[in-house]
Amino acid sequence: MRDMTARGYDCRDLSRSSGYDAGDEASVNRFFGGLERLDALVNNAAILELAPIVDMKVETWDEVIRIDLRGAFLCSQAAFRLMKPGGTIVNVSSLSGVLGTDKFPKMSAYVAAKSGLAGLTEALAMASEAAERGFGLMVGCMVATSLAMAPAVLVAQRARLVDLDGALLLARDRPDGLRYEGSMIHPATPALWG
Q1: How far apart are CA 152 and CA 4, in angstroms?
Q2: In whole angstroms, what is the distance from residue 66 CA to residue 61 CA?
Q3: Which residues pair with 184 in a beta bridge?
Q4: Which pLDDT belongs to residue 57?
Q5: What is the pLDDT of residue 194?
Q6: Which domains does the chain have, with CATH numbers?
Q7: CA–CA distance from 20 to each of 12, 17, 30, 76, 103 (Å)?
Q8: pTM value?
Q9: Which of 38, 127, 129, 166 has the smallest CB count inside 10 Å?
Q10: Please, are residues 42 and 72 in contact by the beta-carbon 8 Å criterion?
Q11: In the prediction, which pLDDT does 155 show?
């Protein structure tokens, strides 16, 4: 960032050291609410907690997913609302998101988050390419929990058809999941992410 600022770019830091939390919706909204313009977003927030999956605490898992994946989702969502055509979103993933836990032992939550980030990136890229070509986009999900479908809500904002009612077909969804009112889907509460 220092190098970019030295070149005359107006760079802002959405990090805990700057008083923001990329995994917290209110904090992200406060940050982006202070911007008049956005040309590029780099999603690079991540934490790494090492533990075998059998020993990892649920709270630790949730915090890694909250920062590493939810943070990218929230920032991308806010960027879509602010950016003009030609803007750029860069999601910084990891080889662990492609190669998996056998190559990166004791990093199961990090691998899951980075795999999810790779999927979110692909979905956003496909949505952008479809729009450029004048294609319609449909977002759908079969039977899955709200946690599995929550990232699709971001892509759904650009879709003509949305079928994300899979959580309604479950006997029990995750607490604090997506909220349905008639044909409307409302985003999950922050508690879904931990």
Answers
A1: 32
A2: 9
A3: 181
A4: 95
A5: 63
A6: 1-135 (3.40.50.720), 136-194 (no CATH)
A7: 11, 7, 9, 15, 32
A8: 0.69
A9: 129
A10: no
A11: 76
| Stretches in the chain below the pLDDT threshold 50 | none
According to DSSP, the residues that pair with 186 across neighbouring strands are: 179
If one counts every other C-beta atom within 10 angstroms of the C-beta of residue 34, the result is 8
> What digits encode the pLDDT tens for the residues 16-65?
889 999 999 999 999 999 999 999 898 888 888 999 989 999 999 999 99
Choose the catalytic residue: 9, 20, 110, 180: 110
| Host H or E run for residue 185 | strand 184-186
Exposed e or buried b for every residue in 156-175, given b needs 16+ CB within 10 A? bebbeebebbbbeeeeebbe
110 is catalytic: yes
Q: Which of 62, 77, 93, 82 is nearest to 153 (CA)?
A: 77
